[in-house]
Specification:
Length: about 325
């Protein structure tokens, strides 16, 4: 006889929740509607639902995500799994933020849809069903934050959106565990969650821009005068023009400045290829190695937690 699993479905809005209202597509469908319209209702699930947000995913804020983590943590003893439905524009960022907060403490599955419910090729029901079966299979093992969408189950640290329109937009960056880099201190586990829970409101005001560098890029430090930190999305092997280093070094003296590669595969650079290169950059005050393997977007979210943690340490002193 199978045991009943308690699963909490949390909706943030997005394409999976769209409906036509006053001639416009707006995210109005709630978490209860997502659960009620799934094609297969497993008898061994006791569902609960919560409409946390009704937003396009590009309108989600860091404060929203912080409060989401506070809410999930408050329910962590009541449920064996959580399914988060959100917009696909920033789905990989939402899932990585949850990864930073919870690590492998909870069973959290993130899903969404590339087509709205009124579209003939709506994929939301299929994806929600797939997320449900994934959540059930992870209850007793393989806990953590995973994206379940379009037939792929991918860990939050390994997922990338590769198309703005295709139904199979989300796929793993690395295809197998052998080549997937270890999380470079990316998830701080319970320490990160404690920091977040005690400083959730602070995330409403944190400002960390991502600056893309390419051929002919110039940097105006004025654009960063109100920033709490910044991430430089660098070409190739964390490369920047030599002429830009003095300005960036001055910047790094005032705010944490992370170098991230814009390449999809962000493996650590072997010292035998560019001897001493990363050592030189880190000596100048730039943050690289503890963010290696992270995308610029993931690096930004990790930096949020690092800034919060340092503020907390400073307050304690």
């Amino acid at each position: 006889m199978s045991m009943t699993s308690c699963i909490l479905a949390i909706s943030l809005g997005g394409t999976i929740a769209l409906a036509i209202k006053d001639g416009k597509a707006v995210p109005t469908d709630g978490a209860d509607q997502l659960v009620n319209r799934v094609a297969s209702h497993q008898a061994d699930i006791k569902w609960s639902t919560h409409q946390f947000l009704n937003k396009d995913s590009v309108d989600i804020t860091l404060g929203d995500l912080a409060r989401l983590c506070v809410y999930i943590n408050s329910k962590s003893d009541e449920y064996s799994g959580f399914i988060i439905s959100t917009g696909t524009d920033t789905l990989e960022e939402v899932s990585y933020f949850l990864h930073e907060a919870f690590g492998r403490r909870l069973n959290i599955i993130v899903t969404g849809a590339m087509r709205p419910p009124y579209s003939k090729d709506f994929d939301g029901n299929l994806n929600f069903n797939f997320a449900t079966s994934t959540c059930l299979s992870h209850i007793n093992q393989n806990r953590g934050v995973f994206v379940a969408i379009s037939g792929h189950v991918v860990s939050a640290i390994n997922v990338a959106k590769k198309s703005s329109v295709r139904l199979d937009s989300f796929a793993p960056i690395y295809r197998d565990d052998v080549h997937t880099p270890a999380d470079p201190q990316g998830c701080q586990g319970e320490q990160a969650l404690e920091t977040l829970l005690s400083n959730a409101s602070a995330l409403d005001d944190i400002n960390i821009p991502i600056i893309a560098l390419s051929i002919g890029s110039k940097l105006n430090p004025q654009m960063l005068k109100d920033a709490d930190g910044c991430v430089l999305s660098c070409p190739g092997a964390f490369s920047i023009p030599d002429a830009m280093i003095p300005k960036l070094q001055d910047l790094a003296a005032h705010i944490p400045t992370v170098f991230a590669s814009r390449c999809i595969h962000n493996e650590p650079i072997p010292d035998n290829i560019y001897p001493g290169y990363l050592d030189r950059l880190e000596t100048l005050g730039f943050l690289i190695r503890e963010y290696t393997t992270l995308s610029p977007q993931q690096s930004r979210l990790k930096l949020v937690f690092d800034i919060l943690r340092k503020r907390e340490i400073h307050v304690r002193k």
